[in-house]
Design brief:
This protein has six helices and two strands. The protein has about 130 residues and is mainly alpha-helical. It is globular.
């Protein structure tokens, strides 16, 4: 049975809500999100707009995801946790095709953000936000 656009948008909303539910329980992501997200419902709606735009082409998202993430305080290892939680939420909420597409986009975003936010290598060999 073919899904309607409304059903697909509802799946994306479920994915975003499941992602945040699981993220708040994650030992790395939870503290970051608790510190930064003070009004969860508008945040979820904005993130759902982002994913609806990327998966359905709605053009609803208006924002700059990179600029928002530049302000967050976290270590580069957080990307691994973010991807793990995102992949599970996408796989558990979306159709297989949409999940695969969302996961590809998420991996691209995580790689781009990691390079942009941590452009230097510290003396310890780890990615760094500032030169050593």
């Amino acid at each position: 049975m073919m899904q309607t656009d409304t059903q697909r948008v509802a799946e994306i909303d479920r994915m975003v809500r499941l992602f945040y539910e699981r993220s708040f329980d994650d030992p790395v992501l939870g503290p970051i999100f608790f510190d930064e997200i003070h009004d969860l419902e508008p945040h979820i709606l904005r993130v759902a707009d982002f994913w609806t735009d990327h998966l359905r082409g709605t053009k609803k998202y208006k924002g700059n995801t990179y600029a928002v993430h530049m302000k967050l305080k976290f270590e580069p290892e957080a990307f691994d946790n973010w991807l793990k939680v995102f992949e599970s939420a996408a796989s558990d909420s979306l159709s297989p095709d949409d999940a695969a597409k969302a996961i590809r986009i998420a991996h691209h975003m995580a790689g781009s953000f990691k390079v942009g936010l941590f452009p230097f290598t510290g003396k310890d060999g780890r990615p760094s936000r500032v030169p050593d």
